[in-house]
Amino acid sequence: MREYIINSNDAGQRLDKFLTKTLPAMPKSAMYKAIRKKDIKLNAKRCDISDCLKEGDVLRVYIKDDVLGEEKKNEQKSCSFLKACDISSDIVYEDDNIMIINKKCGSVIHPDKTITENTIVDRVKKYLYEKNEYSPQDENSFAPAVCNRLDRNTQGLVIAAKNAAALRAVNEKIRNSTISKHYLCLSASMPPKMSDKAYAYHRKDGTTNKVTIRAKPCEGYKQIITGYTVVKRLTDCNLIDVELFTGRTHQIRAHLAFLGCPIIGDAKYGSKTVNEKFGLRYQALCAYKLIFMPDSEPGLLSYLDSKSFEISDIWFSGIK
After folding, report:
1. Contact 304, 292 (CB under 8 A)
2. pTM score, two decimals?
3. Chain-wide mean pLDDT for the chain?
4. Model confidence pLDDT, tens digit, residues 42-92
């Protein structure tokens, strides 16, 4: 028998979600069967997969270990994230619920095929652990998480949630599009207009990890909306402010290339000739500003309503 005491970060989620995170090796069919046969009990009573957990609840699982498999065995239990670099100098804002971090070019948020350590998530865990705000041994299902994504070679602001309630709140705001995301980029070519809200259709090829854009609806394509304004015309290029209204993979890079103004330094969607001329190591793209828009109903993060956060130390800002 395994027993779990529900803490504040476990509370508020469905029973089946908690079990899936805590016992990832247990087949879902075995979980549903155990709940049906009363081999999983909540506060010594029969439970249902949709039951919402509350802080202080006691969950007991009466299933053999060979069926359950190992409990979650991610690196947080061994604290291997402590090998990560310090992130304190990259923190733009912090409160009891969230951190806003300036992710530098070349760093990754989550492990990928080539980088498995020293991710932004690792650095956040290390920072909070050393501040005594995160204790992996005391957590059943939660770990600090980064809520929005940026490509490895894109600089910019990312939001990290310090607790489960904040994670749900930020994810909800992202789903509801009440966090406005602005980017700055450089293009050698002018877009079709000085300012526009451009619509197109997007499809990602999972094999090549490359995006295709079409002007009209096509089967398998999803609509994207990208706003842009030419901020300044420089000697050899243009500084463009981009606002994302949808958030698809490589949306800005692929959409601007489709509009005839690819980002300088973008090896995947850009111009080889232009890239060789400027010789940039990364694509000249930075997620420089986040604005927290008010939600229709008050929530955990209402104190951030109408607040904006931005960075000024953009790596390509010296280009004339």
Report:
1. yes
2. 0.89
3. 93
4. 999 999 999 999 999 999 999 988 777 665 544 445 688 999 999 999 999
